[in-house]
Structure formats: structure tokens, C-alpha cells
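Q: Got a minute? One more chain.
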Amino acid sequence: MPAFARLHPFTVLAVAAAVVTTTTALGTWLVTLAVVLTCLALAAAAGKLTRLAAAALAILAPAWGSQLIIHGLAGGAGEAVLASAGPLRITEEGLETAAGLAARLSVLVVVGLLCALVIDPHDLVAAVDLSPAPPQAGYLVAASLSVLPRLAARQRAIGEAQALRGARIGRGPVGWWTRLRLRSVPLVLSAVHDAADRAPHLAARGFPPRTRVTRLRVVPDSRAQRVVRRIALAAAVVAPAALLALPALLPGGDA
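A: Always. Here it is, folded:
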């Protein structure tokens, strides 16, 4: 990812925040579709299209289904009834509400996943450490980014150990529940033990440090990127407020 590697992590996050807030405030299908397609094109350029599409679909599919059930089927709001069966009604207003919420959620998920895929975690931790943020923030970011891969590897090791001991898990929903029940307890206990084991080592090294430490990893930055970050952060706040207040300022708008 040579193009993204030249960008500061804070620049990517600031632009992503401006895009999400502005797109959410606009709430139009064309802008939402344009943002999603742009994210997919950027992911393809970075060689991350398959991972982005799979992760986004895994997150959005159940979310879209829940929005459809809550607002489209069981909401009951609206008078334009398209179909009904007992207490369930499919209304035009409910489908529009579900579609609007699904579109806003799609932008948030796709943009967030793209940031997670293109930002180097080590660069992000180094950027946090080099920023005016407290030293504890860098450790919290590093721990948060590494906890999921560590837990995934640990649960696979637990599953392999249980399989060697002859644990019968089965298939289908019953097998999934059995697998979850057998792996959850040792996984939680190992995580607690890891946290307790890490604490004295951090204390022995004087964490948090009294002075700013020197990092060997340098994160590329420039004056232009700092200007872009300021503009993006300002746009993330000002643009949604202006878009939401614009209808009231137009002639004939609500006061």
C-alpha cells in the first residue's frame, strides 16, 4: 500500500470522520452509493477488496435484517400499507425508514473497515505516542488492536487442545453452542491471567513514563497533511450542522 503508507494515520481518520458525518447528514442515496463505491475502489487499489467486502457483508447483513424487521415489518408506522398478516404490516414509510438507516450504517461500516485495513497499526500507535496525548493512550490503542488477533489465535489453540482430548462438539446450532460453551471459560480465564501477568511488567518498567519517550519508528507527516486534518475535522462538525440547519433557513422552511 505505497499510497496509503505515505499518509499519516490521523489524516485518514480525520477524512473518514468528515465523510461519515457529512454523508449521514445528507442522507441521499446517490451520495451514499458514491461513498461506498469509492471505498471499494480504494480497497481494490490497496489489494484489500475481498477482505473489505467479506467483513462489511458479515456485519451489515444481520444489521440490515434487523432494521427491516423492526421498521419494515413490526414498526406499524405509516398509512401506506403494502401487505399485512395479523400484527405484522409492511408499510411504505417503514421500508423507507429501514432503507435510510441501512444506508447510513453502510457508510459507517464500510468507511470504518477501510480505515482499519489501510492504516498500519504500528504507525497508529507511534502516531499516538508522538502526539500530545497521554502516554497511556498509545498502550491502550496497541492493546485494543492486538487483543482480537490474540484471542482468535488462543481460541483456535483451545479448540485444537479439546479436539485432541476427544471433545465431541457436533454440528449445527447445537454444535455451535457446545463449542462456545467449552471455549468461553478457558478463553476468559486466559485473558484475565494475561492481564494480571502483564501488570507487574508494566509497573517494573515505570509505566506510565514520567517523560516523553523516544520512538525509533517515524510516521511520515507534512504541513499539507496537518492542514488537511484541520479542514477535515472542521468539516466533520460544521458540514452536518449546516446541512441540518439549511432547511429551516430556506424560505418556507420550518422554524
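A: Residues 172-204 form the longest helix (33 residues).
Q: Perfect, thanks.
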